[in-house]
Write a structure and sequence with these properties.
Number of strands: 33
Strand content: 35-45%
Number of helices: 3
Distance between the termini: 37 Å
Shape: globular
Length: 410
C-alpha cells in the first residue's frame, strides 16, 4: 500500500554515515552477491574486486523499504529517493527532500561508503521521517542482490532493507513527446550557471522531428535529429519580442548553445546536452505537468473553436463564452450574447450534453457575435469526449477532433 503524504513540516538534519554494502557478480542481466562465488565471469579473472565496476554508472530509484514497524512499505506517493553510482568512486542522490553524497570503495563482496554529507532543507514531517529511515537503512546494509532492473539491499542477517528499480536512460526514442525545463547552462567562461531567477526556458520534442519552447522571452522552433547519443538541431526561428537585457543575453546564449549541440545523455528526468568535444552545454529537468483543474466548479472560458470549415479560430474580440459544470449534472454559461443551460453526462473521458436551452436576446456588436454563438451551441451538441491538461480543457467530437478549447478563468 502506498503511504499517504500528510505534508506536515518537520526539521532537516545532516546524516553522516559509514555505509557497508555487499557487491556481487553481474552476469547476463543478473546481480548476485555471495562471498563464496569467485569472479571469473568478470574480465576473465578470479579477482573479486573486479566486480566493483558493475555498479559504476548505474542509477536506481527506491520503490520500497523496511520502515521498522510495518515491514516493507512503498515510498510515499509523490516522493522520490535515488541512489546513483558514478565512475569515480562516488555516490549521490536525493533522499526525498535533501541531496546526499559520499565516496565508495569496493573490495570483494563488500562496498563501503565514506561519511555521507547532505543538504539541510526542511520538509514535511512524513517525508523527513522517510528520509531518515532511508539513510539509516543504507548504514545497516551488508549485502545486495539484483535481477534485471531490480536491486535489493540486505542487512547482515539477510533481511531485505531496501528495494530499488533501475532508472531508465533517456534515448533518442524517449525524447519524442518529452518536455524539459532548463536549470543551468555553460556561460562560455568555463562555468555552468543557473538560469536567471524569474525566467523559464523550455524545450519540447515532438513526434515529427521538431522542437519548440520558450527561450525566456521569445518562443522558438527548429528541427532536430537524434540517433543513438547524437543530437543536432536545425537553425532556430523565433518571435521577436524585447525583454530585460539580462534575459535577452541569456536567450541569445541558449539559442547559440543549441546550435553547438552534438550529443546528449540523460537518466530519468535529467538531460544534458554536450558539444562535439564532450563539454556540457545545457542541463535540463523534465517538466512536471501542472495538476489538472477540476472539471466541475471551474469556470471555463472559450479561447478557440472549430468554425466548421476545418479551421480552428479564436473567439471574437470583445465577446466572452463560458462553461461551468456543476456536481448535479448540469452546465450553464454565456454563449457570448445569451445565457444557456443543459444537462451533461461523463464516463471516463466521454462527455455528452443534453438538449440546450438559452435566453432569446439579440446582440449586433461585436459583428459576428450571433453567428459565433450559434456555432458554439451546435458544437456542444456534437461533443463526445474531453481532456484536461493543467488549466486547459479540450472537447472532442466522435472522431476525436478538437472542436472547443477552454482555459480556466482566473
Amino acid at each position: 500500500m502506498v503511504k499517504k503524504n500528510n505534508r506536515k513540516t518537520g526539521r532537516s538534519f545532516l546524516m553522516g554515515t559509514a555505509l557497508v554494502l555487499g557487491i556481487c557478480l553481474f552476469s547476463a542481466g543478473c546481480l548476485s552477491a555471495s562471498p563464496d562465488t569467485d569472479g571469473d565471469a568478470i574480465n576473465g579473472t578470479d579477482n573479486k574486486t573486479d566486480r566493483a565496476p558493475i555498479l559504476n554508472g548505474t542509477n536506481w530509484q527506491l520503490t520500497s523499504y523496511d520502515n521498522g514497524t510495518d515491514g516493507m512499505v512503498s515510498v510515499i506517493e509523490g516522493s522520490k529517493i535515488t541512489l546513483i553510482f558514478d565512475d569515480e568512486g562516488r555516490i549521490a542522490g536525493t533522499a526525498g527532500i535533501n541531496r546526499y553524497f559520499a565516496s565508495y570503495e569496493a573490495n570483494g563482496d563488500a562496498l563501503t561508503f565514506g561519511v555521507a554529507g547532505s543538504t539541510m532543507m526542511a520538509g514535511p514531517e512524513d517525508l523527513m521521517t522517510q528520509e531518515g529511515t532511508y539513510l539509516k537503512l543504507l548504514n545497516e546494509t551488508a549485502t545486495f542482490s539484483g535481477v534485471g532492473d531490480e536491486l535489493k539491499l540486505y542487512d547482515s542477517d539477510g533481511k531485505v532493507l531496501l528495494v530499488f528499480e533501475k532508472i531508465p536512460p533517456v534515448t533518442a526514442e524517449s525524447l519524442k513527446g518529452s518536455e524539459w525545463v532548463l536549470t543551468s547552462y555553460n556561460n562560455g567562461n568555463e562555468a555552468i550557471v543557473s538560469v536567471i531567477a524569474g525566467t523559464q526556458i523550455t524545450l519540447t520534442f515532438d513526434e515529427e522531428g521538431r522542437i519548440a519552447g520558450s527561450a525566456g522571452v521569445n518562443r522558438y522552433f527548429a528541427s532536430y535529429e537524434a540517433d543513438g547519443d547524437a543530437l543536432t538541431f536545425g537553425v532556430a526561428g523565433s518571435t521577436m519580442m524585447a525583454g530585460p537585457e539580462e534575459a535577452m543575453i541569456q536567450e541569445g546564449i541558449y539559442l547559440k548553445l543549441l546550435n553547438e549541440t552534438a550529443t546528449f545523455s540523460g537518466v530519468g528526468d535529467d538531460l544534458k546536452l554536450f558539444d562535439a568535444d564532450g563539454t556540457v552545454l545545457l542541463v535540463f529537468k523534465m517538466a512536471v505537468p501542472p495538476a489538472p483543474e477540476p472539471l466541475t466548479g471551474t469556470t471555463w472560458e472559450l479561447t478557440s473553436y472549430n468554425n466548421g470549415n476545418e479551421a480552428i479560430v479564436s473567439v471574437i474580440a470583445g465577446t466572452e463564452i463560458t462553461l461551468t459544470f456543476d456536481e448535479e449534472g448540469g452546465i450553464a454559461g454565456s454563449a457570448g450574447c445569451n445565457n444557456y443551460f443543459a444537462s451533461y453526462e461523463t464516463d471516463g473521458n466521454a462527455l455528452i450534453f443534453g438538449m440546450i436551452g438559452a435566453t432569446k436576446m439579440f446582440c449586433d456588436e461585436p459583428e459576428g457575435t450571433m453567428a459565433q454563438e450559434s456555432t458554439y451551441l451546435k458544437l456542444l451538441n456534437t461533443a463526445a469526449g474531453y481532456q484536461i491538461e493543467g488549466d486547459t480543457l479540450t472537447v472532442q467530437d466522435s472522431s476525436e477532433k478538437i472542436i472547443l478549447t477552454f482555459t480556466a478563468a482566473e
